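Checklist before submission:
- one chain only
- standard amino acids only
- sequence pasted in full

Submission:
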Amino acid sequence: MTAEKLLEEAAAAPIGGWDFSWLEGRTRSERPPWDFEALVCSHARRSPDLLDLGTGGGEWLASLPCRPARVAATEGYEPNLPVAAARLEPLGVAVVPAAAPDNVGQEPGAGEPPLPFADASFSLIVSRHESYLPAEIARVVRAGGSFVTQQVGERNEDDVYALLGRRPPPPIGWTAEFAKAQLQAAGLEVIQARAAEVTTTFADVGAFAWWLRMISFSLAFSVGEQRGRLAELHASATPLVVRERRFLVEARKG
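Returned file contents:
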C-alpha cells in the first residue's frame, strides 16, 4: 500500500477514549517486567472500593476482572467523559470530572484542585498514566489503604521526535525516584518503585500516524503537517521502533 493511502486511512480513522484496537495486528509492544493489572487485583480483591484516576474512555477499568463492589473513576480530558460514562455507568461505576497538574510542576504539598471526594473515601486508588496530587491521594485514601500507579516516564517520546526529524525537549525529571519522594513527602510509605524501557514496533506509517493522533495531547501532531516526513519514512523503509519509558510505584498509608 502506498504512503498516501496509508496516511489517508490513518487520518480518517476515528479516535476516542483510550481504545487502541484499530492498531490490532499492526504493532508489537513489549510489556514492562511487572504486571500492573495483577498488582491492582491483588489489592482490589481485599478492598471494598476502588478509585481509578484518569480512566480515559473507561476501557481498562471496564475490563478489570476484580472490580470491588464500589468503584468510581475520574477523567480530566473533557471529550473522554461521555465515552467513559457510556461504558462505565452501566457497570455501576460513577464517572466524575477531575484532573491534576503535571506532577513535576506541582508545589510541594499542593492540594488544588482537590479530588471531589471526602477524606478517607477509598481503600484503593489507582492511576494508570495520569497525573495526581500526592497530598490529595494521602487525604482521600483510608489508613491502611494503597495507591498504585504506572506512569509514562521522562524522555518517553525521544524516539518519536527523532523519527519525525524534530529535536526532543529536555528531560523534566519525571522518574520513579521523583514520584517516590513526592509520595513520601505526603506521608505515604512507598512499598516499591521500579522503572523499565519497553519497545513498540509499528508495521507501517499509517499505524504510526494513527497512534500519534491518539497521543497528540503529549506530542503535537497532525497527519497533514507531517505527511512529507512520514512519506520519507515509508519510502526509505525506516524501522518504526519506539522505546518507551514506564515506571511503577506502590504506596501505602499507615
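Reviewer check: The radius of gyration is 19 Å.
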